[in-house]
Amino acid sequence: MSQAIDPDSQIIELLWQRSEQGLALARQKYGGRGLSLACRLLPPEDAEECLSDSLLALWQQIPPQRPKALGPYLLAIIRNLSLKRWAKAHAQKRNPEVLLSLEELAEVSPQSASPSAEDELLQKRLLAAIQDFLRQQSPAARRLFLLRYWFFLPLSEIASQLGLTPNTASARLSRLRARLKKHLEKEGFNI
Amino acid sequence: MNTPNNKNDINAIDNTIDDNALNLATLLSKLDPALIDEALDSQTIPSGTPPSKHQRLTRLLLLTAALLLLFSFSSMVFALNTLQQQNQQFYLRLLSPQDIADLSLESAPVTETTPDPKRLFAALKSDNIYTQYIAINRLAELYNDPQLRSQAIQQLQPFLNSPDAHDGNSADPKLTEAAALVNDILSGQFKSPRLCHMADGSVFFTLFPDYSDYGSHNQLWRIQDGQLSSYVTFSEPYNYITQLLPSPDGKLLAVGLCSNKSSQLVIIDAINGYWSPELISSTRTLWPMTLGGDTGQSRRADCRIDNETYSNFRNLQWLDNNRLQYDADLAYNDNNTPDYSAVDICDSVCVTYDFAQNSYTFSDYQLNTY
What we know:
heterodimer, A: mainly alpha, B: 370 residues, alpha+beta, 4-stranded antiparallel β-sheet, 22% strand, elongated, disordered N terminus
């Protein structure tokens, strides 16, 4: 019985073989979503550049990395680079939606999220606590959280995707943040 | 901290944004890819650059253009359907002698003026409704040959039994109407109200009855002593015969005709073969003289190059065996008006024409200046 081959595995294999075709396929499959994500944080021309930088980073990281899921891996690179650029351009070009997302996220930001926190272990604990929290939530709630704070989608778009009104989506996010705050405080983080 | 509700709050947030929030957002990038994968599975996360204002405007314009195209296309389809329906329905504006000789409205050369019976019978089976129509009417011309007449009557039957024609389709009412008239003539019944029975036993009629909105074919046929003959074929502008009205004693026949913009009237002495002048043109000329004075002189009965007088008659009736009465609408140019227009004056007048005296009497008139 033949086993279906995951296209992402093929792309990763191509990247491991240092084939530029792998990079082209990665761009073809995830470039649109990556660009969309970057555009939430950056102006379009910067987003394009960020996408190219992210693909270069992917090229540099694989090998030696062999991610299990290529999509989230590449999107995480794009998101990181976009956030860095966004932070740089923070004073000039700003996307209100990202500001609003971050403002909401500030409600649940413990001191340990700061780069000044030298304890890397503490950051890993924080990430683990957030992941645990998310896993305890319903798939719909998880998705709501990630669409807002990972993909930086505006409330109107999230509401449209989830079949909610923007007010309902906003209220659910508010309750989700309150639960996350309680969860992190319970885990010993000072918010 | 409360979430701001409008963009005015953005600057305030911007200044107070917690670096921790940004760092937390960055930290979230390291979330388990499986969680991100789950969110990606929805397949609804938008791809590509969000549309700019210009792009949105372009899309709106494209959508509008598409809707306009759709509307135009729908209108075109509707128009085509309407045209198709019109084409399926009988419509003839003007039959020319060539059309009739050709047995169809196709541009075949004129080869004969006397119908070939085989050709007529074959034309009845044509797919072209106009060819059929011409053939049906021309079957009447076989009247003088008893054998052909009998065959023609047989051939006409499918068109009489509407709604089923010979090909199984419904016969057009015009075909049925023409077939009924021709059948009435060929069978010698002569019961059709379209036939004018004269005092000498002859019968006058037109074929192609009311084929257009204007009237019937402008050829007058006569059956006298059992023989059919073409009595007269009018020429332009007498394009259509609109009315045949015998006098009470059946000796005179008033023939109403028309062109596209005017109507004409003549009286035929069917017994002796005399004709009256064309009455409407004569009336139009005589009426200003009857009025006299400045009023009469102001009426200029111009003769147009297309012979249209823009004058018409209504309410045709015989007062007795000699006098024909009609209401005439007579159009003139006004001599007092320097600028030319098609019609300046249109008088309505009741006219009585005495055939024996060739005289006109005017009454009950109304003068109208435009």
